[in-house]
Design a protein that fits this description.
Structural class of chain A: alpha/beta
Strand content of chain A: 5-15%
Largest interface: A-B, 50 and 50 residues
Order of helices and strands of chain A: HHEHEHEHHHEHEHEH
Oligomer: homodimer
Number of helices of chain A: 10
Distance between the termini of chain A: 29 Å
GO molecular function (chains A, B): precorrin-8X methylmutase activity
Radius of gyration of chain A: 17 Å
Pathway (chains A, B): Cofactor biosynthesis; adenosylcobalamin biosynthesis
CATH superfamily of chain A: Cobalamin biosynthesis CobH/CbiC, precorrin-8X methylmutase
Keywords (chains A, B): Cobalamin biosynthesis, Isomerase
Helix content of chain A: 40-55%
Family (chains A, B): Belongs to the CobH/CbiC family.
CATH topology of chain A: Rossmann fold
CATH architecture of chain A: 3-Layer(aba) Sandwich
Strand order of the largest sheet of chain A: 1-6-5-4-2-3
Number of strands of chain A: 6
CATH class of chain A: Alpha Beta
InterPro entries (chains A, B): Cbl_synth_CobH/CbiC, CobH/CbiC_sf
Shape of chain A: globular
Chain lengths: 209, 209
């Protein structure tokens, strides 16, 4: 064979996680958080990401409990819902993305916001106790905060809030951190995205490495 | 409204791309490449990514031509195929991911490799003239290089080679760059992933910003 490389998937994961644990500064994470941080670093290909992670107290434990109890995972983008590894889910949890629902374009026009944000209106019946995964749109995270400003709106069990980018991403994550409507995990600043968000969900769904 | 943020999708894109062009060092890219680099930086939320991008001469033009002529886009992961914006495709191009084909697990066992790599065997009938998008698995990129070592294997029109991670990612991208079986674009080192790869494809599919 002209190319020499590891072809065993389990060995690739084990070597990757060993490199991450050797290089990254994971000391401030508790055991529930550490495996989540490792998997997020893995998805980003970036040691140093750990410096930008913030877990609210008990977030990882709350999200794990909710998933084990069968909570649905509500995703802002299909790249997020598509990335969740179904075999890691502890209770055949539903993975939901409402972005392509036919009602969304008209909702977005009526609410004067993006389709990503408008799609969250369709989450309401399932929002109570859910695990929310926002990995793309800052407007979706802002919209969720507006919805949760209403005391009558059901509370999720936990929010992974990792929208990415240059306009609103940092601000929306800081707003989540300040509001703390429920346990949450953010990546500070511009970094974030679907891969990192999926990695957090996959780690919260199962401790298997 | 308690939160003040931009809710117009077009304005968000325009502001994001203006920030990127103000902050990133894009001088070494030609006009065909520049828009691709900007969109990749946008997806990563990371100015500085541009330092790690390498386009082979004429890659961006070759990929644009192929897509305009109707080339299929062959993706190594569903997060990649799911992220391609269908409305940007110039010729209703097919977006293909064979990872969940029922033949793949047995192929992987027979070939002694990962499912991500084995899935590429199913690309062969469509590989000639295709645009390849590898945004996840280093083993898939290595496998593609092995396939293309055979002079009888059809050549893609272009390869976006951006697997991510700590084991084999850097090595597989360097191997692609050294072999240059066709025009290619890589992100050097550990960085890469589905979001960055999708951004490159979306930029190559249309110049619209």
């Amino acid at each position: 064979m002209r190319y020499s490389y590891e072809t065993d998937g389990a060995a690739i994961y084990a070597q990757s996680f060993a490199i991450i644990r050797a290089e990254a500064d994971l000391g401030r994470f508790d055991p529930d958080e550490e495996g989540v941080a490792v998997r997020m670093i893995h998805a980003a290909g970036m040691v140093g990401l750990e410096r930008h992670l913030r877990f609210s107290p008990g977030m990882a434990a709350a999200a794990r409990r909710a998933l084990q109890a069968g909570a649905p995972i509500l995703c802002d983008a299909h790249m997020v819902s598509e990335g969740v590894t179904r075999s890691r889910l502890p209770a055949h949890n539903d993975v939901v993305c409402t972005l392509r629902d036919p009602a969304v374009p008209e909702l977005a026009a009526r609410l004067g916001t993006t389709r990503s944000a408008a799609a969250l209106e369709l989450w309401r019946p399932r929002l109570g106790g859910a695990v929310v995964a926002i990995g793309n749109a800052p407007t979706a995270l802002f919209r969720l905060l507006e919805m949760l400003d209403d005391p009558g709106c059901p509370r999720p069990a936990a929010i992974v809030g990792c929208p990415v980018g240059f306009v609103g991403a940092r601000e929306s994550k800081e707003a989540l951190w300040d509001a703390q409507p429920c346990p949450c995990l953010i990546v500070e600043g511009r970094l974030g995205g679907s891969a990192i968000t999926v990695a957090a969900i996959n780690a919260l769904a199962s401790r298997a490495e």
